[in-house]
Amino acid sequence: MKSFLIALQFLTTLPVKLKNIKEKELPASVTWYPVAGLVIGALLALSFFLLSKVFMFLIPPILVVGVYLLLTGALHLDGFADTVDGIYGGRTKKDIFRIMEDSATGAKGVAWVVFILLFKIIILITLSVGDKIYPALFLFPILGRYAITILMKYSPYAKENGLGKVYCGNITNAQFVIINAFTLLLSVFFGLPGLAAFIGVVITAVIIIKYMSKKLGGVTGDVFGFTVEIAEIVALLILAI
User: Across the strands, what pairs with 157?
Assistant: First the structure.
């Protein structure tokens, strides 16, 4: 149960305030990342249901994205923006790390964050026209967090130090089997579109691992955030087909 609460504390803004968390406890919490995604998805689905009773058509999908930002504290968007800035602005690995570690977000990072948010809103509006909105709201946060477990399992950490270093290489085979079984089961529950989204996210994670290994020599905490955002977009696009 503590591992689950650690996952919620790190991945959401829900009022979980554990103290004295030991570094060695962090890898065990990764088993619960898809479950934390399910909690986020359930709250998004509930929010959409309630908002749709009050507002018409365009408003609920827009507000649901706002609820998502509140639930996650825009944590992954921050990593996404830093990664985009670094990849765009750095010619060498050292330059990329320097830019990514800069507390100021560059114009390119901001522009792509706006693009990601607008893209999510447009996809959710499209999904809300039919009956696909609720499966999508449940599933895309699960698959986004599942994607980073693949990076943690199979990619080295690119820097000597950093919060993400404790995860890379410390996810056991047993953990990863549980993570995959849970995520696949939930994906298949939503039929062929869910299975297709699962496969699409796996492919996306593998591509990111290969690209970042070539570019940076591995992944970083910011790359985790980048991966969540890209995986969520991929999942939503597939579910919208």
Answer: 219
